Amino acid sequence: MQQRKTMRSGDQPWVKWSLITLAIITTMLMLVIPLVLIFDMALSAGAGTYWDNLTNRYTQHAIGLTLLVAALTVPINLVFGIFLAWLVTRFEFPGRKALITLIDIPFAVSPVVAGLLYLLLYGSNGWLGGWLMERDVQLMFSWPGIVMVTVFVTCPFVARELIPLMQQQGREEEEAGVVLGATGWQLFRRITLPNIQWALLYGVVLTNARAVGEFGAVSVVSGNIRGETNTLSLHVELLYQDYNVVGAFASASLLAGIALLTIVVKSFVEWRQARQRAPLDDLSDSR
Amino acid sequence: MSISIEGITKHFGSFQALRDISLEIPDGQLVGLLGPSGSGKTTLLRIIAGLETADEGRILFHGEDVTRLHVRERRVGFVFQHYALFRHMTVAQNVAFGLDVLPARERPPAAEIRQRVQMLLEMVQLDHLAQRYPAQLSGGQKQRIALARALSMKPQILLLDEPFGALDAKVRKDLRRWLRALHEEFHFTSVFVTHDQEEALELSDQVAVMSAGSIEQVDSPQKLYAQPSSRFVFDFLGQVNVFAGQVEEQLLRQGEAWVHLPEPSPAPALQLYMRSHEVRLQTAPAAYAHLPLRIESISLVGAEVRLELSPVGWDSEEPWEIGITHAQFNSWQPSRGDHCYAVPQVAHAIAQGTDTPETLHWQAGEMDDPAAMI
Fold first, then answer.
1. Which residues of A197-216 are buried (b: 16+ CB within 10 A; e: fewer)?
2. Per the confidence metrics, is the pTM higher than 0.80?
C-alpha cells in the first residue's frame, strides 16, 4: 500500500528550502566570513609576524591583564550567583521579586553607562573616590577598577542560569537531607551542588566569555594606559588606531579563539544538561 | 515515643494556617490527619518534624519539649509527598545518606553501612534495585525507597505526608497493608497526612479530622464514622443522605415528604443526616416515614448494590445513595425509574443554626407492613 505523506501547514517544499537558503546566506555573511577574515588578516603578513605580534611586550601584558580580570571575576560571580540564587529560591522575604528583577540590571544598562557610573562614584572626584584617594587607594584607571566593572557587567549570568533550575527542583530534597541529619554544608555539597553543577558550569562559561571580551565598561574606567591598564579588547582598538591592522587582528584572533572555545564548551554542557533532564525512563519495570 | 501538640498556632502572612491545635498522640499509635486541602494538616506535620516553626505553642516528644530543637536533632523519619529522593544518587546511596552524613566519630564503618542498607532494601523488597537511579523507578518503588530511607536512622517517630497520594489504587492498597505491618513490627509512633477518608479510616488507630486550621474531631475510625461530632465531619466522611424540613410538633415535613420524629424537637427546622446503612428501602411507605424516591441509577459492582435515588415531591441538594444486598436486589428486581420509600432507622438531627448532631433511633417495632419490606 502506498503511504500518503501528510502535509502540515508550512510544509511546502519551496517555503522550506527558501528559508534554509536564506538562513545559510545570512549566517555566512554575518558570522562565518567575518570570523574567517579575522584569522586571514591576522596571518596576512605571515606566521612569523603573527607570532611577533602576539609575543610583543604590550600584547603579552594585555593578555596577562585580561586573564587576571577573568580569574578574579569568575570566582567572585560564581559565589555571588550561587548566594543570590539560593537566597531568592529558598527563602520568602519582602522584596524578593524586586531582587530577581534587579539582577537583570547589568543586562539592561549599556556597559558604557555602567563604566561612567563607576567612574562617577569611585573616581578621584567621586563620592567614594575622594575618600579613598585620601587613603591612597586608587581604583579607577587601574586594574581593580577594571575588575569591578567586569564583575558588574557579568554578575547576572550565573544567577540567571541557577534561579529557574533551583525553582523547578524545589527544596524538598534539601529538606529530606536535613531531616536525615545533614548539616548546611553537607546539604550544599552533597545535594544542591550535584543538582545544579551543569547549570553552574554553563553560567561560568558565559561569565568567562563576557569577562574576557568586555569592552565598553572597561574602556571608560581603564584609562587605556599601554602596558598597564590595557586589556586585550582595548589593545585591539589601540593597535587599530595606530594603523597596525595586522597586529590588531592578531590580538583579535585570540579573542575569537576564546569565543570558539566557549561555544564548544557551552554545547558540551548543554548536551550534558539535556541528558541529566531526560533520564532513562524506559529502564524502569512496571512493578 | 508519644507526641504532644500543645496550642500550636501558625500564620503565613495574613493567612491563619493553624488555630490553637492541641493533640495527644500516644506511643506506638498510627494517627491520621484527615482534611481537605488547605485545612492545615501538612503544615501541622511539618511543624511536628521541625521543618516549619509554629508562631505559638509547644511540641513535646515523650514529655520532652522539642519546640526549639532543630529538625536535624529531632531524629524523626519523614516521607515526603513526592518522595524527594536524591535524584543524582543511586537507591543504595539514597538509603545510606543519613548514615553517611553522621559525624566521623558516630559513623559506622563502611561495611556496616552497606549491610544496613542491604537490610533496609530487603525489608522493602527492593534489594535488586540498589544500583538504580530514582528516575528509573516506578511510583510505588520510589515510595518504598523513601520509606526505607526514612527508617534508616531507626526513628521512633515516622511522619508521612500524603504517603500514597500519587499512586494508583492497586499499589496504594498493597502499600497500606504493608505500612500497617511495618508499624506493627517496629512499633514506632506514626502520623500521616491524607485527604482520602477511606485511607484514614482503614489505616489509623486514631483519626484527627481537620478543617480550616482547626481539629474538628479526634476519635477511632469506628466512632468517627458512627458518631460524627459536627456537620463538617459528617459531610467529609463518606456519603450521607440529607432530609431537611420544618418541624410541626413531632413531624418533620418538606413538600410531600415527612418523618415522624421519635421525640418532639424544640427547633423550628431540622436536617436529618443518614448514612447509607442507616436507611432501608421499602416498596410502600412506613407508618412513621414518608420519603418517596425514584431510582436514577443502579451500580452492581462491589459487595452491595448501590442505588442512586432522587426525591419525588421534595428536594435535596445531593442525590441519595442507599446500598442493598445482592440477595435483596434479586428478589426485588427494581429497575431505573421505579419508585420506592426510604425508612430511616437511625438519623442524626442537626437543628438550624447549630453544628452538633443529635442521634435519633426509631424502634424496630414501629416498622409495619412486612409485605412492603425488601
1. ebbbbbbbbbbbbbbbbbbb
2. no
Contacts of B80 in chain A (CB under 8 A): 172, 175-176
Residue ranges of domains in chain B: 3-227, 239-372
Per residue in A9-42, pLDDT tens? 667 888 889 999 999 999 999 999 999 999 999 9
Scan residues 14-33 of A and list those with Cβ closer than 8 Å to B.
Answer: none
CB B69 within 8 A of CB B50: yes
- Is A195 touching B (CB cutoff 8 A)? yes
For residue B7 the three cell numbers come to 496550642
| Cβ contact B97–A177 (<8 Å) | yes
C-alpha to C-alpha distances, A25 to A28, A40, B168, nearest whole angstrom: 5, 20, 55
- State whether B85 and A178 contact (CB < 8 Å): no
Highest CATH level, class, for B3-227: alpha beta
Q: HSE of A17 in the Cβ direction (CA atoms, 13 Å)?
A: 3
What ipTM was reported for this prediction?
A: 0.78
User: pLDDT at residue B276 above 90?
Assistant: no
Contact B83, B76 (CB under 8 A): no
Please indicate whether residue A278 or residue B169 has the higher confidence score (pLDDT).
B169
pLDDT of residue A285: 38
Confidence (pLDDT) at A276: 64
In this complex, do A178 and B86 lie within 8 Å of one another by their Cβ atoms? no
Distance CA(B308)–CA(B352), nearest Å, equals 27
Q: Which residues pair with B157 in a beta bridge?
A: B189
Residues 6+ away with beta carbon under 8 Å from A106 = A114, A152, A153, A154, A155, A156
Hey, is the C-beta of A46 within 8 angstroms of any chain B C-beta?
no
What single-letter amino acid sits at B154?
K
pLDDT of residue B364: 59
Position A283 scores a pLDDT of: 40
- Range B239-372 has CATH code 2.40.50.140: yes
Q: Do B102 and A181 touch (CB under 8 A)?
A: yes
* Chain A residues in contact with B150 (beta carbon < 8 A): 179
**DSSP annotation string for B282-334:** ESS--SSEE-EEEEEEEE--SSSEEEEEEESSS--SS-EEEEE-HHHHHHH--
